[in-house]
Specification:
Number of domains: 1
Keywords: Membrane, Transmembrane, Transmembrane helix
Distance between the termini: 16 Å
Shape: rod-shaped
Low-confidence stretches: none
Helix content: over 70%
Number of strands: 0
Largest sheet: none
Mean pLDDT: 82
Protein name: Holin-X, holin superfamily III
Number of helices: 3
Order of helices and strands: HHH
Length: 108
């Protein structure tokens, strides 16, 4: 049982180490998104200046930018929920092992 307990705690620690950089990663992704779309809208401005009838590019660019931001944030939330659920399951297994160890100790 001791090896399982150690392995379970190592898995919990590893999972926590994986989830810790998510906040920093999200900030970096949003910053990169903003830079990417600043460049994109700059190119749209150049295109609209060159071809004045292409004003629809603003709306198309805004739609694509909005969808990409929403999808990025949704994937972040899904990833956080899944890792939180996995962490809860691992902690639940850890508690079950501790309870089983306590019961065997009491029986002896």
């Amino acid at each position: 049982m001791e090896s399982y307990e150690t392995n379970s705690r190592e898995q919990i620690a590893e999972l926590q180490a994986l989830t810790a950089p998510f906040a920093v990663s999200l900030r970096r992704r949003v910053a990169m998104w903003a830079i990417r779309w600043a460049i994109g809208f700059g190119l749209i401005a150049l295109a609209v200046q060159q071809w004045p009838s292409a004003t629809w590019l603003w709306w198309a660019g805004a739609a694509v930018a909005g969808l990409s931001l929403v999808s990025m944030l949704a994937m972040h939330v899904i990833l956080l929920r899944r890792t939180a659920g996995l962490q809860e399951k691992l902690e639940g297994l850890d508690r079950m092992v501790e309870e089983a160890e306590n019961e065997t100790r009491q029986e002896q």
